[in-house]
Fold this protein.
Amino acid sequence: MNSDPLVIAGRTFSSRLIVGTGKYATHEVMQQAHAASGADMVTVAVRRVNVTDRSKESLLDYIDTTQYTLLPNTAGCYTAADAIRTARLGREAGLSEWVKLEVIGDERTLFPDNGALLEATRVLVKEGFIVLPYTSDDPVICRQLEDAGAAAVMPLGAPIGSGLGIQNRNNIQIIKEFAGVPVIVDAGVGTASDAAIAMELGVDGVLMNTAIAAAQNPVAMAEAMKLGVAAGRQAYLAGRMPRKRYATASSPLDGLVTGS
Amino acid sequence: MTTALRITLNGDPHDLAEPLTIAKLLATLDIDPRGVAVEHNLIIVKRGGFDSTLVQSGDQVEIVNFVGGG
């Protein structure tokens, strides 16, 4: 266990990177990418079992649940009621109270419906869930979610699967300043520098799926993300130099050989 | 001669020969009960209740599991 772990709802994670299980070409590639990422929490979706074709292998055959904490999501839910129902099913399937709560408000952007999200958070917290809501990069809704009992807040960096990187760094920073619970940037990361930027803003972790799964080499990108998150975290802790508009020489001016 | 008993399974009509417990239904469908969650008429069935919950004509059953997602 490292000396700077991520702690959510009293549970300690050695990695600040949380990764998804979707969109991989094969389960084997996913498994290798998970190992390379160093993550110890992975998201999963809850879907109907295919009752007519039982030939498909189970996702859980490729995730060692003694090593990875499963974080079931409510992806694809457009109402609080559907998200609550899916969260309850996920709890039964995984025998865990943890849920990545999503209530989508718009099909093209997959931006959250924050009103419904808040409502679902209140209900699930009351039922004993550890709720990690995916939300907008908005400090006000993040504070409301925290007040409603969310165990962490997970503002988006950019639209899900867009790979655009952190679009509103200032908001993410303000969210972190306001928050009394961990802040996880969820969605929008495209490459390792995006993950590093998120961490440099001071957030507690980064959650990503497509940036790794859709890379040309997912296993190599998973490792790059691990390094990006670690570099960003360390740079944040180190404290960056102040920004200046003009140059300041790094070499002394005294003793310079001049003239002819 | 008995008529088949019709339920709604994961949103589709599904015929059973006779009323079954959730446990028997899963076995009939070749589904490993570990890692699935079952909803019976919109109520979650705890794993301990798989053997005692009976699925009857007209019932709605949802069987879900984990798939890849972000």
Summary: The two ends of chain A are 61 Å apart (CA to CA).
